[in-house]
Amino acid sequence: MAKAQRRYECQACGAVQPRWAGQCGDCGEWNTITEAQAEALTPFSAKQSLAAGGRRIELGALDRETPLPPRTPTGLAELDRALGGGLVAGSAVLIGGDPGIGKSTLLLQAAARMALAGRQVVYVTGEEAADQVRLRARRLGLGQAPVRLAAATSVRDIVTTLSAQAPATLVIIDSIQTMHADTLEGAPGTVSQVRASAQELVRYAKQSGAALVLVGHVTKDGQLAGPRVLEHLVDTVLYFEGERSHQYRILRAVKNRFGGTDEIGVFAMGPEGLGEVANPSALFLTERDEEVSGSVVFAGLEGTRPVLVEIQALVVRLTSGATPRRAVVGADASRLNMILAVLEARCGLSFSQYEVYLNVAGGFSVRDPAADLAVAAALVSALTDTPLPPHMIALGEVALSGELRPGAHAPLRLNEAAKLGFTSALAPDRTEGGTGLKLLRCASLAAMVDRFAPARDG
Question: Phi, psi (5° rounding) for residue 130?
């Protein structure tokens, strides 16, 4: 009998190494490489060809009529929005987030609402006892929901139990890192165990038509733990984001085979669980009784949903020869440095003797290039101590030449601002107008500075 070859797998990224090392050469993590048993290599398996002897498969036409898959609503409109309209039968969804962010609470609320609507729902927990889940459901006021609950970690037992009954509409596994496949050696949570467990559960979902939701742990960097193949196995990947110090939570879709990506659902954590936020712009805007310099509202876009957020800037003059600090919360630090460089090179403003602090109010995270103009306007307002008009929003991308470029889907953003009572918008020249907003057009960043910043010495 051929001797099995030794190989080593990284538990962080799944990379295979020929020998053990303290640090993974692919992802750079330390002490994550463990020995894995490889398949035995025999002369037969080495010489066997796969070019013949198989079953012929049917090749169909690309233009064949295919109906859209029906969707089942979860009872939570914000969750349905992130999913693209609801759960698709036979689909696999992976949801990740920081510990304590509310993943289990969200799924328990969705499971209870679907069960109360007459759907068959199975909730399998591998991290808690069944009584703990019952107590949480009672606190949320969902203790009477007919959800079928079990505490188990054996994939064989779970699939056997599910296959012995009529297919459920929804099966929730909390979490995939606690599942164990007895066909492989290794503790739950290892690369091989996570991969094998997910493959078996996804196979069951495809064959039975049940919608499968897997809860996944995240690393310290906020990425889903386990092998990257886990994200390729599923149809939809959702991230549940937010700061525990803030009440809001954001459910963001980063992959969706049945809908668009970058859609978000917004929730607010309360004593009775997660409540849906139909108007997230009101959540991220602060009330101001008086005009304050360094503050401007940006009309962002998350998927198809416009979201208005407040961008705040603070500029503090240095009293010593120390290196000026640049602190950013909720935005891209490298983009802030680029905007500061353009303001100095193209507009004649100097920030070399000032510390700069930039914050997105409410803990929201902005990665939209169209926020450049709002950031620049907030910086100029803070530097000159000149408040901007309180009912004005800013929207536009800044080029290295100082030119202003319009943001994508500007009418959608402007219409949302008009609904919330804003009267004007600072935007590039080529921006399409919205309903009920006066456009303050600027061709370049220097024109914006001349419009809102008074003459400044040195």
Answer: -60, -35
The position carrying tokens 């969707």 is 71
Specify the pTM.
0.72
Residues shown for the chain: 458
* Number of other residues whose CB lies within 10 A of the CB of residue 199: 15
Q: Please, which pLDDT band fits residue 134 given cuts at 50, 70 and 90?
A: very high
Q: Can you tell me the distance from the alpha carbon of 428 to that of 167, in angstroms, rounded to the nearest whole number? A: 55
158-172, 270-284, 391-405, 422-436: which has the minimum mean pLDDT?
270-284
Q: Which helix (H) or strand (E) holds 274?
A: strand 273-276
pLDDT digits (tens, 9 = 90+) for 66-88: 888 889 999 999 999 899 889 99
Report the sign of the C-alpha dihedral through residues 77, 83, 86, 92, in that order: negative
Tokens 């459901």 correspond to what residue? 137
Domain 283-452 falls in which CATH fold?
Answer: Ribosomal Protein S5; domain 2 (3.30.230)
Q: Which amino acid type is present at position 233?
A: L
Phi, psi of 428, deg, nearest 5: -65, 165
**What does the CA dihedral 393, 301, 267, 72 come to, rounded to 10 degrees?**
150
Residue 269 scores a pLDDT above 60: yes
Residue with tokens 């328990």: 108
In whole angstroms, what is the distance from residue 101 CA to residue 83 CA? 19
One-letter amino acid at 433 equals: G
Which CATH number is correct for 71-278, 3.30.70.360, 1.40.20.10, 2.60.40.1120, 3.40.50.300?
3.40.50.300
pLDDT of 302 reads 79
In 3-state terms the chain splits into helix, strand, coil percentages (rounded to 5) of 30, 30, 45
**pLDDT tens per residue, range 19-32:** 888 888 888 888 88
185-208 confidence digits (pLDDT tens): 888 888 889 889 999 999 999 999
**Radius of gyration over every alpha carbon of the chain, rounded to an integer in angstroms:** 27
Residue 41 clears pLDDT 60, i.e. is over it: no
State which H helix or E strand residue 111 sits in.
helix 103-116
Predicted confidence band of residue 283 (pLDDT cuts 50, 70, 90): low
Residue in 290, 352, 306, 271 with CA at minimum distance from that of residue 105? 271
Domain definitions of the chain by residue range: 4-40, 71-278, 283-452
Rounded (5°) CA angle 175-177-180: 105
pLDDT score at 457: 42
Distance from C-alpha of 193 to C-alpha of 180, rounded to nearest angstrom = 6
Detail the DSSP E strand segments found in 135-197: 148-151, 170-174
**Is the backbone peptide bond immediately before 91 cis, with ω within 30 degrees of 0?**
no
